[in-house]
C-alpha cells in the first residue's frame, strides 16, 4: 500500500517565530529532497543573523512570563503536548518518511521514543525537587532549588528529525526556559509541525521557536549574547566546533557527536539471536542512526559461524521507499550521502576487505533516481582501513575479527568514538567485564541499540560528546537549570548568636 504526504514543489518552509509561521528577512533557500525519488519536494528558508536575532528577542520576551510560570502550568502544557503527539502520530510519521526516507514504522519508533521525553517532562515537579535540611546547624536551615537559564538553543541533525529535538526542548521548556531550535535543513517540516502542536497545547507564543538554516544560522546562535546555553547533536567535527565557539562566547554547551558503535559477539552467544539483532541494528534506518551498529567484532570461532547467517539476513532485507508499507529499509538522505557510502565500500575492498554482500549497484524499480544503497557486509576489515576508522553513516556493517574478549575491548577503547556498544553473550562474567572495561557511554548486553530510556540520560564518551552533561533525563534537567542554596537563620529563634569576623563555623 502506497502512502503519500502532500508536499507541493512550490512549498517554501518558513521559520516559526513567536507563535506563527514567519518568512524572516533572508530569502535564501535550500532544497528539501524526497530521498526515495531524488526529486526536490520543497524549499526551506535559510536564516541569516537577523532572523536568529528576531527569534531570540521573541524568546527573551516570552521568558519574562514563562520563567515565572508555575510548575503546574508547565506540566499541563506537557500533558497536552503528549496527547497531541499521540493523536498526530500518523501524520508526523509520514512527514518524516517523506523528507528523511526512513520507513514509516521506524518513523513511528522515533516519535514514540521522543514522546517518552515529553512524558518525563510531565514529571518535572518531581525532577526539580530540591533538598531541605532542617537544623543543619544550630538555628539554621538549608535548602536548594534550581532555576531556568533563560533563552536556550538546540541544533539538531537530519537523522532523527523529531526525536533528537524532543531530547531537548520539552525538558528545557518544562524547566522554565524558552527555546530556539535550529533543526536540520534536510528534513525541516517535523519541527514546524511540533511548533503548531505546542501552540495547540497552550504554550505561550515565543516560548518555542524554530529557525531554519545552515552554518550562517548556527554561527548566529553560537555567538548570540542573548542565548545562555546550546545543545547540539550532529557529526563530531561540527560538535567540536560548536563546543569551542559557543563556550568561547560564554555559553553552557553540550555537543553530542558521531559514532562508530561496535557489537562484540562471543562464541557462547545465541548466534541466530545475535545475527537478527545485528542486522536490524546495522541496516535499520539505512544505518543512519548514531547508535547503529557499524562494526561487528566477532570473537574466535564466532566469526565463521556468524558470517553466513549475517549474509543471508542482509540479503533478505527489503529495500524501497519508506512510505511504502512492507519495506525494511529506505534510501539514504542525499545523493552525496549515497556516493560517500559507495566510495567507502570501494576503498574497503581496495584495502583488502571482503565484500560478502555488496549493495553498491542496487536499483529500486520505479525509483532509479532515489538515493538507495543496498545493505553491505564487509568481512576481514582491519583497524587501519578507512572503512573502519571513519564514521560512514550508511547501510554498511564491517566485521573485524578478534582472538578474545580482551582484544575486542582493546579495539573499542582505541577507537576515538565512544557513543554506544553492545555485547552478545550467554555469560554474565564476560558481560560484566565488558560493561566495566569499555570506554563508552551507553552499553547493551544482548541489546544492540542501548538508547537509554527517558529516566536515564543519553551520551557518549571521547569524541562522541563535548561538554559535561549528557542529554535528557536527570542530566538534561541539570543542564537547563542552575542551582541555588539558601542558608537561613531567624534571629528571634537564635538571638544569642554573635556575629563573628572569622569564617563562620556552626555547631
Ligand atoms: P551534521 O553535523 O552535518 O549537522 C548537524 C547540524 O549542524 C545541522 O543542524 C546542520 O545544519 C549543522 N551544521 C552542519 N554543518 C555545519 C557547519 N559547517 N557549521 C555549523 N553548523 C553546521 O550532522 P548530520 O549529517 O545532520 O547528522 C548525522 C551525524 O549526527 C552523524 O555523525 C551522527 O552520528 C550524528 N548524530 C549523533 C547523535 C548522538 O546522540 N551522538 C545523534 C544523532 C546523530
UniProtKB/TrEMBL annotation:
Keywords in alphabetical order, please: NAD, Oxidoreductase
Q: Does the keyword NAD apply?
A: yes
Q: Which CDD domains match?
A: ALDH_F6_MMSDH
Under InterPro entries, the record lists: Ald_DH/histidinol_DH, Ald_DH_C, Ald_DH_CS_CYS, Ald_DH_N, Aldehyde_DH_dom, MeMal-semiAld_DH
Q: Which PROSITE patterns match?
A: ALDEHYDE_DEHYDR_CYS (PS00070)
The residue ranges of the Aldehyde dehydrogenase domain are: 26-486
- One MF annotation (Gene Ontology) recorded for this entry: methylmalonate-semialdehyde dehydrogenase (acylating, NAD) activity
Question: What is the E.C. number?
Answer: 1.2.1.27
Classify the source by domain of life. Answer: Bacteria
Any one GO biological process: L-valine catabolic process
Protein name listed in UniProt:
methylmalonate-semialdehyde dehydrogenase (CoA acylating)
Q: Which gene encodes it?
A: mmsA
Amino acid at each position: 500500500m502506497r502512502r503519500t504526504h502532500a508536499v507541493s514543489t512550490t512549498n517554501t518552509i518558513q521559520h516559526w517565530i513567536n507563535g506563527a509561521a514567519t518568512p524572516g528577512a533572508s530569502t535564501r533557500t535550500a532544497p528539501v529532497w524526497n530521498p526515495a525519488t531524488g526529486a526536490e519536494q520543497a524549499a526551506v528558508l535559510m536564516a541569516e543573523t537577523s532572523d536568529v536575532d528576531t527569534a531570540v528577542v521573541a524568546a527573551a520576551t516570552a521568558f519574562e512570563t514563562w520563567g515565572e510560570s508555575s510548575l503546574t502550568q508547565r506540566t499541563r502544557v506537557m500533558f497536552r503536548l503528549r496527547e497531541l503527539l499521540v493523536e498526530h502520530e500518523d501524520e508526523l510519521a509520514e512527514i518524516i518518511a517523506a523528507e528523511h526516507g526512513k520507513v514509516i514504522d521506524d518513523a513511528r519508533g522515533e516519535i514514540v521514543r521522543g514522546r517518552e521525553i515529553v512524558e518525563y517532562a510531565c514529571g518535572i515537579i518531581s525532577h526539580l525537587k530540591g533538598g531541605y535540611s532542617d537544623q543543619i546547624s544550630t538555628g539554621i536551615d538549608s535548602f536548594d532549588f534550581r532555576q531556568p537559564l533563560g533563552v536556550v538553543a538546540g541544533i539538531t541533525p537530519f537523522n532523527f528529525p523529531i526525536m533528537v529535538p524532543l531530547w531537548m526542548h520539552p525538558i528545557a521548556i518544562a524547566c522554565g526556559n524558552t527555546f530556539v531550535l535550529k533543526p536540520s535543513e534536510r528534513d525541516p517540516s517535523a519541527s514546524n509541525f511540533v511548533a503548531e502542536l505546542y501552540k495547540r497545547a497552550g504554550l505561550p507564543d515565543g516560548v518555542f521557536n524554530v529557525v531554519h538554516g545552515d552554518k550562517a544560522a548556527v554561527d548566529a546562535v553560537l555567538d548570540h549574547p542573548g542565548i545562555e546555553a546550546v545543545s547540539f547533536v550532529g557529526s563530531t567535527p561540527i560538535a567540536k566546533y560548536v563546543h569551542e565557539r559557543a563556550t568561547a562566547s560564554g555559553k553552557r554547551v553540550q555537543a553530542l557527536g558521531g559514532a562508530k558503535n561496535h557489537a562484540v559477539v562471543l562464541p557462547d552467544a545465541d548466534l541466530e539471536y545475535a545475527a537478527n539483532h545485528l542486522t536490524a541494528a546495522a541496516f535499520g534506518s539505512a544505518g543512519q542512526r548514531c547508535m547503529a551498529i557499524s562494526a561487528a567484532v566477532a570473537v574466535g570461532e564466532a566469526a565463521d559461524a556468524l558470517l553466513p547467517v549475517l549474509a543471508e539476513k542482509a540479503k533478505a532485507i527489503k529495500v524501497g521507499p519508506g512510505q511504502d508499507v512492507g519495506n525494511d529499509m529506505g534510501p539514504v538522505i542525499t545523493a552525496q550521502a549515497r556516493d560517500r557510502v559507495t566510495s567507502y565500500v570501494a576503498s574497503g575492498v581496495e584495502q583488502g576487505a571482503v565484500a560478502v554482500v555488496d549493495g553498491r549497484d542496487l536499483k529500486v524499480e520505479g525509483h532509479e533516481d532515489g538515493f538507495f544503497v543496498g545493505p553491505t557486509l564487509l568481512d576481514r576489515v582491519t583497524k587501519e582501513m578507512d572503512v573502519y576508522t571513519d564514521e560512514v553513516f550508511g547501510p554498511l556493517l564491517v566485521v573485524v575479527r578478534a582472538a578474545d574478549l580482551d582484544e575486542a575491548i582493546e579495539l573499542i577503547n582505541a577507537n576515538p568514538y565512544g557513543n554506544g556498544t553492545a555485547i552478545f553473550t550467554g555469560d554474565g562474567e564476560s558481560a560484566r567485564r565488558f560493561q566495566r572495561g569499555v570506554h563508552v557511554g551507553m552499553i547493551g548486553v544482548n541489546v544492540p541499540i542501548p538508547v537509554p530510556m527517558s529516566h536515564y540520560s543519553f551520551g557518549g564518551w571521547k569524541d562522541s560528546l563535548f561538554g559535561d552533561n549528557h542529554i535528557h533525563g536527570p542530566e538534561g534537567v541539570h543542564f537547563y537549570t542552575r542551582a541555588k542554596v539558601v542558608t537561613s537563620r531567624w534571629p528571634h529563634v537564635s538571638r544569642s548568636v554573635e556575629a563573628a569576623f572569622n569564617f563562620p563555623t556552626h555547631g
